[in-house]
Amino acid sequence: MLSGQERWAWSSPTTSEIKADNPTASGVTPGRPIGLPRRGLASGDVIAATITLAIIAGCGGGGGGSSSAPVTPPSEPPPPQEETTELSFSRDVSGAFQRSFGNVDDGETDESGGAAAADYDGDGDIDFYVVGGNTEPNQLYQNQGDGSFLEVAESVGLDLIHWGSGPAFGDIDGDGDLDLFIGAVNEDPHYVFENRINQADARFVDVTADAGITFAARKTVSAIFFDYDSDGFLDLIVTHWNTSYEAGSDTETLWRNNGDRTFTSTSIESGVAATLVDGSFDYSFTPNFSDIDGDGIGDLLMTSDFNESQVFLNNAEGSFLNITNREVIKDQAGMGAAVGDYDNDGDMDWFVTSIYNGDGVAEYGNRLYRNDGTGTFEDVTVAAGVQDGGWGWGACTADFDNDGALDIVHVNGWGEVRDADYRNQQVRFFHNIDSANLVFDERAEALGLTDRGQGRGLACFDADRDGFIDLVITNNEPENIVFYRNDTDNGNHYLGVKLQATGNNRLGVGALITVSTDAGAQVRELGGSNNYVSHNPLEVHFGLAAATTADVTVRWPDGNESTTRDVAVDQIVTISQ
User: Fold this and answer.
1) Are the beta carbons of 494 and 542 closer than 8 angstroms?
2) Which of 52, 229, 247, 463 has the fewest C-beta atoms under 10 angstroms from its C-beta?
3) What SS3 state is found at 275?
4) Residues 529-555: pLDDT tens digits?
5) Where is 404: in which H helix or E strand?
6) Which is nearest to 458 in space by CA: 476, 477, 474?
7) What letter would DSSP give residue 447?
8) Residues of the chain with pLDDT under 70
9) Which phi and psi (to 5°) does residue 554 adopt?
10) How far apart are the first and last CA of the chain?
11) Exposure of 318 by Cβ count < 10 A (0-12 exposed, 13-18 middle, 19+ buried)?
């Protein structure tokens, strides 16, 4: 296994070396009709943008620690089953996304950047915001309703130039629209913006000075909004990779929303600061909230570098208990994450990206932790066949072929480290071919996902509202935005769900949504998730295969439940509390 010092000693790729291939149910409001005919790539047709942020030099993240390799040596996964669903992707070649990441030689910037997907203007389709690099402004891509995008950052006050990282949308004031937090690295400023798009201002307004969020940390990498203390207001959770730490000090991780658009650091009083860091540096990268023990309250899964990923059980009183079992939670270089019910047993499992060095022993790669329903995890990585992800970063999970099983996609990339070359590494796509037994087949190249950029961020959403999930990748290199459209057309059905809750958490962040058909039940959690410097929109997607109707049960953030029956498939519905 490589030491931390050895991991920092790498040969960075030059620009020339970085190459990329190149009927309405009661209580339900239907959205814009879905399942429109798939469009061809006509001239000027803008498809979703895959963000490819360019990294040219420098090395910071992705260090492994000193934990031993798994007891069971890596073995080959079972042979893949025959593919019958015409799952495929095509890359946007319209040239609509012209942006460069910048010069990564400027400080520790190679782990930054990212994208946030959200319906910021409330028109029913998904937009996305891209940050990273200090040579070009951040960009906001407004969805035009057909999967094409218009860059509008300047017109709404978001065309910042800074080393931005980990943008996060969330309704901080309970008015029903999405405000924005933007982190930064290299000691550049972070920002808090209030969304006044649909008011007289018609723009985002900088409220950073009034929000009370200040950092001693030099960098803020990823961020999410989630109501961890169940007071009805969305709190902010951030990560500060490679920040020095002294016992008893504030890790500046949790920021409680005071209900008046101001925030207070609660990392110490919540108990998170005391056990987030095992050594003298905070190596946290990717936070996710998920109700891992089924008590109705979101727990904190913190993906961290250098063997420091942590599991925090929420005590429901604004405090947390660290229940990490190092015999199981042993990812050596945790970077990205994707939380979902991969085996369809009704609870949330945890996928973590890491480093795989070729033999799978010294650097044994990604980890897949299966939940037994009580918040106790089991490492099932090798049997699942998902360990080899190169130098993994951002990850997301979705049912990309609508067959009823969650798949995993993640980006990767770095430089040369000792005897391994992580440049020009291809995106990974782990196709879930046996959810009951958790078996995946890596099929990225066969499906058309051939990008080999320096991947960091990743967001997954249905850009053109055809019922299949598309991909936006951010690579840290000159070609900063890449988009993959999901071209699958296999006849499988789907259902998208948005929420309209009561109280200040109007979009229902933290709700558990169950969709049931004759084939069984699937569960999703809404919001509180991060892929690594990136997040998906506040809506959930279910692949339903041959089912034509479904029952939808919502466990709302306040604990109440509601069920809407016989919902027609192939649409996005909004369920009101």
Assistant:
1) yes
2) 247
3) helix
4) 999 999 999 999 999 999 999 999 999
5) none
6) 474
7) H
8) 1-85, 360
9) -115, 125
10) 51
11) middle
Compute the distance between CA of residue 61 and CA of residue 506 in angstroms, rounded to an integer. Answer: 36
Contacts 24+ apart (CB under 8 A), 70-75: 70/330, 70/364, 70/379, 70/381, 70/382, 72/382, 73/360, 73/361, 74/359, 74/360, 74/361, 74/364, 74/382, 74/387, 75/382
Tell how far CA 249 is from the center of its chain: 28
Phi, psi angle pair for 13, to nearest 5°: -75, 145
- Locate 115 and state its tokens: 């994208």
Tokens for 576?
């009101």
Cβ pair 390, 356 in contact under 8 A: yes
Query: What single letter denotes the amino acid at residue 203?
Result: R
**Which residues fall within 8 angstroms of residue 242, CB to CB, at 6 or more apart?**
60, 61, 108, 219, 281, 282, 283, 305
Q: Are 407 and 396 in contact (CB under 8 A)?
A: no
pLDDT digits (tens, 9 = 90+) for 257-310: 999 999 999 999 999 999 999 999 999 999 999 999 999 999 999 999 999 999
Looking up tokens 């709404």 gives: 156
Which DSSP string do the residues of 495-506 spell out, in sequence order? Answer: EEEEEE-SSS-T
Q: Half-sphere exposure of residue 508, counting CA atoms within 13 Å on the CB side?
A: 26
Question: What pLDDT, in 10s, does the model give residues 75-128?
Answer: 444 444 444 458 999 999 988 888 889 877 777 789 999 999 999 999 999 999
Asked whether the beta carbons of 285 and 241 are under 8 A apart, the reply is yes
- Percent of residues in the chain assigned helix, strand, coil, to nearest 5: 5, 35, 60
For 175, half-sphere exposure in the C-beta direction (CA atoms, 13 angstrom radius) is: 15
**Residues with Cβ within 8 Å of residue 417, at least 6 apart in sequence:** 2, 6, 7, 9, 10
Spatial distance between the Cα atoms of 457 and 532, rounded to a whole number of angstroms: 6
pLDDT at res. 303 = 98
209 burial (CB, 10 Å; 0-12 / 13-18 / 19+) is exposed
